[in-house]
């Protein structure tokens, strides 16, 4: 059974699973699931993709062909999804994290990636990552930090992959400048204006929307509300997270709203000379951090009020 770490603050309860990708198992407020809770089967199997949220480090989303092209070298990366041609979500979500700090409303997890031996196949550059979770009665603040512990600079990105409960009545709202159209394997093809069917600048029910796209020029916060549950959540992030991945699977019972620092396949595109990918480069000894915050509140059960 998955080992768990629990934080409490008034009506809020957060359960972490450090050994399962540094993931969140559940986040509840007044007994209501703010994030999709890991099921007993997920806890027993330690299947991180079925948890409430997991970290994206040292990159978000996909790297084309599971190969990082950087400064004249090509680095093969693992394909964690069976049958999928690309690398996805870095390696932090596939590793056990260590608890390095704990208080009733605060926890810090750490992952040391030494990039030695077989670990170099996960990501060729060594780094140290930390996640901090600060729980309050009506909010959860998550901070990501990454330090370059090696001798060479490398491209990197950070983000979060939180899953939220979803019904056809779930209300979603966010502003973005554009959206990346994708091919059949979810690689970006062109940046377009947000079409009417994906425009949630006026918060509205998601109904039967299907999405798996990266939005550029996101202006926090995003909001989600659940008529019938009396719950609303605001998803904010600092300026480093200029992209928002929104994943709404067809006929699923969940959706993901992911603040991230870069677009899909950002590093390969930056290496080829494309601008505005969100790619950052971490020098030896340098540290970078960013923050996401979830603010929860009671909401009207009137489904017509969006």
What does this entry look like structurally?
It is a single chain. The chain is mainly beta and 306 residues long. 4% of the residues lie in helices and 46% in strands. It has helices spanning 40-45, 266-271, and strands at residues 5-9, 12-17, 23-29, 32-33, 55-56, 62-63, 67-70, 73-76, 87-88, 98-103, 106-113, 127-136, 139-148, 154-156, 159-160, 163-165, 171-175, 178-182, 188-192, 204-205, 211-216, 219-226, 231-237, 243-248, 254-260, 280-282, 287-297. Strand 24 (243-248) and strand 25 form a beta hairpin. The chain is globular. The termini are far apart. Residues 302-306 have low confidence and may be disordered.
What are its keywords?
306 residues, mainly beta, 9-stranded antiparallel β-sheet, 6-stranded antiparallel β-sheet, disordered C terminus
| Element string (H = helix, E = strand) | EEEEHEEEEEEEEEEEEEEEEEEEEEHEE
Number-wise, the strands total: 27
Spatial order of strands in the largest sheet: 10-11-12-13-27-23-22-17-20
Strand proportion, as a percent range, falls in over 45%
């Amino acid at each position: 059974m998955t080992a768990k770490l629990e934080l409490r603050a008034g009506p809020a309860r957060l359960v972490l699973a450090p050994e399962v990708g540094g993931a969140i198992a559940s986040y509840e407020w007044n007994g209501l699931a703010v994030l999709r809770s890991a099921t007993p089967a997920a806890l027993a199997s330690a299947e991180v993709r079925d948890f409430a949220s997991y970290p994206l480090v040292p990159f978000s989303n996909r790297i084309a062909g599971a190969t990082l092209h950087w400064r004249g070298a090509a680095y093969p990366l693992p394909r964690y999804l069976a049958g999928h041609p690309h690398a996805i979500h870095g390696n932090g979500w596939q590793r056990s994290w260590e608890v390095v700090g704990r208080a009733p409303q605060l926890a810090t997890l750490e992952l040391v990636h030494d990039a030695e031996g077989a670990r170099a196949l996960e990501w060729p550059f060594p780094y140290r990552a930390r996640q901090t979770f600060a729980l309050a009665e009506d909010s959860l603040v998550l901070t990501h930090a990454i330090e370059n512990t090696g001798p060479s600079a490398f491209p990197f990105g950070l983000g979060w992959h939180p899953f939220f409960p979803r019904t056809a009545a779930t209300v979603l709202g966010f502003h973005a400048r554009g959206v990346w159209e994708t091919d059949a394997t979810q690689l970006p093809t062109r940046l377009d204006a947000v079409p009417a069917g994906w425009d949630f600048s006026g918060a509205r029910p998601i109904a039967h929307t299907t999405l798996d796209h990266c939005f550029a020029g996101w202006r926090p916060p995003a909001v989600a509300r659940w008529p019938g549950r009396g719950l609303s959540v605001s998803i904010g992030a600092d300026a480093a997270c200029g992209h928002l991945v929104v994943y709404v699977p067809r006929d699923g019972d969940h959706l993901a709203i992911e603040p991230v620092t870069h677009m899909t396949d950002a590093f390969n595109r930056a290496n080829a000379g494309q601008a505005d990918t969100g790619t950052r480069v971490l020098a030896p000894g340098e540290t970078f951090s960013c923050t996401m915050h979830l603010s929860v509140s009671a909401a009207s059960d009137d489904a017509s009020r969006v």
